[in-house]
Design a protein that fits this description.
Elements lengths: L38 E4 L2 E4 L3 H14 L3 E4 L15 E2 L8 H7 L2 H24 L11 E4 L3 H17 L5 E4 H8 L7 E5 L3 E2 L2 H14 L3 E3 L6 E5 L2 E5 L3 E5 L1 E4 L18 E10 L4 H7 L6 E4 L6 E4 L5 E6 L10 H14 L8 E11 L6 E5 L2 E5 L5 H16 L8 H4 L11 H18 L1
Parallel strand pairs: 1-12, 2-3, 2-13, 3-9, 5-15, 13-20
Antiparallel strand pairs: 4-8, 5-7, 6-7, 10-11, 11-12, 14-17, 14-18, 15-16, 16-17, 19-20
């Protein structure tokens, strides 16, 4: 194992890397790794990637369709994005709002996508309940905070659109109610609240999915990085350092941890973005009163470069946002300092509160700002959760299992269209750099 930062646009392999030293890793052990792939093996379906999407796709294939499936994980389950995120289970649709979807397509399409994201949240909740996954779920509610007056107007319109057209009671919260009932946020002008979001320990959730697979006797091979993918005569050969897996169908589920040059179906079709998270020491009762935090509900703001935060079960404050652009800078201290400054601007009384944990991880963005779950012939993929993978990965896994076995899924852009390619893909990071500067100026002055 080594501690280098895997950069999907720079490195050809995510193999032999150490797990993330996160707050989540301090709460639970990864346990013993499953055996790696050795020798020549066969299966009907291979799944590349042992995160939420890969494990749950295997679960649904085995449970619902009795498919012989094998999951190949490059490191140990708990290395990638599924163990590094903030644990927000919410219905997210990338950067597209639902009214924007209605304008881009039509109202029925927007309703269909909204239902898919709603079902995703329900599916996570159902898996936790049905399989008694001990992942510290918190009280339900998703709060989206307006960071300026213009954003407040947009949130009011969003609440009205959701309530009028999408069948959910979206609660609009004025600044006074937000302060008195939820949090004394010094940059908030009001908020929108939905009933069904909630926070979890994402690593415990992931390990619960792994345990489910092991109990199903689904083959899960850890430390089995795919180094070669050969397609011949309608079949697939996946080569690892110690073995070879021959299958009829392949699903690639590595999301942002997929190397840039891996398979033509997904190469140059996503932008890996670093997200950075800090976690404080536990807040005392006096500190909670002073900073006005009265809720453990998941919270996000309306900035282009968003901040997201929640009180954890032990009353630490988790606070996250965008990190470095290049992987080599992932743990530059400047990004932790920026998050601490942003946290203090929201909750000034925490200016001297110590930061106990700081980590980073990749998420995948797409050119059209939405995830794509797509199968064609014998290959499928799910990619581009845009930061909402804890929830939508469950629905994506369910739909992938349907698609790869030939079953019909809803006719929606999420499922009908393959990932669009980035133009001038070598300059994706330059474009990201420009967008971050635009976002910073827009968030600060407009």
């Amino acid at each position: 194992m080594n501690s280098r930062i895997f950069d999907p646009l720079k490195h050809k392999s995510p193999a032999n890397l150490s797990p993330c030293d996160s707050y989540w890793a301090s709460t639970v052990s990864l346990g013993e790794a499953n055996k790696s792939l050795r020798g020549s093996q066969t299966a009907d379906v291979a799944i590349i990637g042992g995160g939420y999407t890969g494990l749950l796709t295997a679960h649904y294939l085995a449970e619902r369709y009795n498919v012989d499936v094998c999951v190949l994980e490059a490191n140990q389950v708990g290395f990638g994005a599924s163990a590094r995120n903030a644990g927000f289970v919410l219905k997210g649709a990338g950067r597209l709002g639902y009214s924007q979807m209605a304008k881009r397509w039509d109202l029925n399409t927007a309703k269909g996508i909204y239902n898919e994201f709603s079902q995703a949240v329900e599916r996570v909740d159902g898996l936790i309940q049905d399989y008694d996954i001990k992942c510290d779920p918190q009280p339900k509610g998703y709060i989206k905070v307006a960071h300026n007056p213009k954003a407040l107007t947009q949130l009011r319109d969003t609440a009205s659109f959701i309530s009028t057209h999408l069948g959910e009671d979206a609660q609009f919260i004025d600044a006074s109610t937000l302060k008195n009932e939820y949090m004394d946020h010094h940059q908030a002008y009001g908020a929108l609240r939905l009933e069904d979001g909630f926070g979890v320990n994402p690593l415990k959730l992931l390990l619960g999915y792994k345990s489910l697979l092991n109990k199903q006797s689904v083959t899960l091979c850890e430390h089995s990085c795919v180094e070669g993918w050969i397609e011949e005569n309608g079949k697939h050969r996946l080569i690892t350092s110690e073995g070879e897996l021959r299958v009829n169908k392949v699903i690639t589920a590595g999301n942002a941890y997929t190397p840039n040059e891996f398979n033509p179906r997904i190469d140059n079709r996503f932008l890996p973005i670093l997200s950075n998270v800090i976690v404080t020491e536990p807040l005392t009762e006096d500190e909670l009163v002073t900073c006005g935090l009265k809720t453990h509900q998941v919270t996000m703001d309306t900035r282009i470069l968003k901040y997201y935060y929640r009180l954890l079960p032990d009353n630490r404050l988790l606070f996250g946002g965008r990190g470095a652009i290049w992987g080599r800078d992932a743990y530059d201290a400047v990004f932790q300092r920026r998050l601490k400054i942003a946290m203090t601007q929201c909750f000034p009384s925490l200016a001297n509160k110590s930061i106990a944990y700081n980590w980073t991880g990749w998420i995948a963005a797409t050119l059209d700002d939405m995830p794509h779950v797509f199968c064609h012939n014998s290959v499928g993929y799910s990619l581009g959760y845009c930061g909402s993978g804890v929830s939508f990965s469950t629905q994506a896994a369910f739909r992938l299992a349907q698609q790869i076995t030939g079953h019909k899924v809803p006719s929606l852009p999420l499922y009908d269209n393959e990932l669009p390619k980035f133009p001038l893909p070598k300059f994706r990071r330059v474009g990201q750099w420009g967008y971050y500067h635009y976002g910073w100026l827009r968030d600060r002055f407009l």
